[in-house]
Amino acid sequence: MTPTLVRQHRTHTGAHPRVDRDARARDWSEIQERMLVPLYEAVYERLEVGPGTRLLGLGCGSGLALLMAAARGATLTGVETTHPERLALARQRLQAEPPGPHARVDARLLDGPPQDAVGPRTPPYDLVTAFDLVGCAGGDPERLAGLLSAALPLAEHGTAVVLTGWGPPERCATSAVLRVAVELADPLPGGTGSRHTSRRDDLEDIARRAGLRPDGSGRVACPFGYADTDSAVRGLLSTGLFDAAVAATDPAQVDKELTEALHPHRRPDGTVWMPNVFRYLIARVP
C-alpha cells in the first residue's frame, strides 16, 4: 500500500473546547493515521504476520494498524490508555465489515494498562507492537519503557517487540514543522520545550531499559501528503504534539504559525508534500 493525498474534509462546527478531542480523533483517523501505512506494512511483512499471530498492540489508537493485521488473519488485542476518543473509533472500525478474506475480525480492545490484556485462558502473545513514534518532538520514552516492561510477562520467550521512531531530522521534512510546537510551548530564550528530540540510539535505549534485547531494525519512507494546507494543519494538530502550544498561546496563533511553517512544502497545485523516513526496531523478550 502507498500513501495517497487526503481529500479535504469539512471543518467541524459548533462550540469547541480549547482542544476538541473528538474532532482531533476524527482528524487523526481520517487524515493523519494513513500516513503511517508504509511503516505498518513493512513491519508486518518483515515479521510475516498472518493467521496464527497473536498480536498485542500498545497504544492502538484508532485501530488502523490493528485493522491491517486483521486483514492478514492475526488475532488481536489492542490497549489504549491516553486517547479514549481514538479507541472509540477503533471499536467502530473493527466491528465493521472484515477487511480481508477472513470471516471475522478476532479482536479485543481495552481501555487500560497492558496487564488487562491477559486472562486465565489467554495464550501468550507472540508479537507486541508500539507504534508510538519516538523523537522529533514526539513520544514519551519513559512512559513507553514502562508500557513495554508491563507487557513482557504477557509474551513468550523470544517474542518480537516492535518500537518505532522518527529518522534523522535531515531526512524528515516534517521535523522543521514540528519545531513550531516546541517553540510555542516554551517561548523563553534558551527554552528546551517539553518534548523529546531524536537521538540515533533512542529505540535501542528504550528497549534495553524495558529489559528487551535489540534484534534488528529497518527504515521506511513515510511521506506526509495532504490535499491542501487546511488538511495538513488539521492532520498535524490531530497528533497531539501541538496541544501544549495551544495551551500556552491560543489556537489561532498555532494555526497561523503552523500554516507558515508548511508554506515551503506547498506545491503549485496547492497540495502539501513532506518526505520523511521512519525507523523501526525489532527487540526480543529474553
Mind explaining what this structure looks like?
The chain is α/β, with parallel strands linked by helices and 286 residues long. 35% of the residues lie in helices and 21% in strands. It is built from 10 helices and 9 strands. The chain has helices at 21-32, 37-46, 64-71, 84-95, 141-151, 174-185, 202-209, 229-237, 243-248, 251-262, and strands at 54-58, 75-79, 107-110, 125-134, 155-166, 213-221, 224-226, 272-274, 277-284. The strands form 2 sheets. A 7-stranded mixed sheet has the order 3-2-1-4-5-9-6, with helices on both faces. Strands 7-8 form a two-stranded antiparallel sheet. Helix 4 links the parallel strand 2 (75-79) and strand 3 (107-110). Helix 5 (141-151) packs across helix 7 (202-209), helix 6 (174-185) runs antiparallel to helix 10 and helix 8 (229-237) crosses helix 10 (251-262).
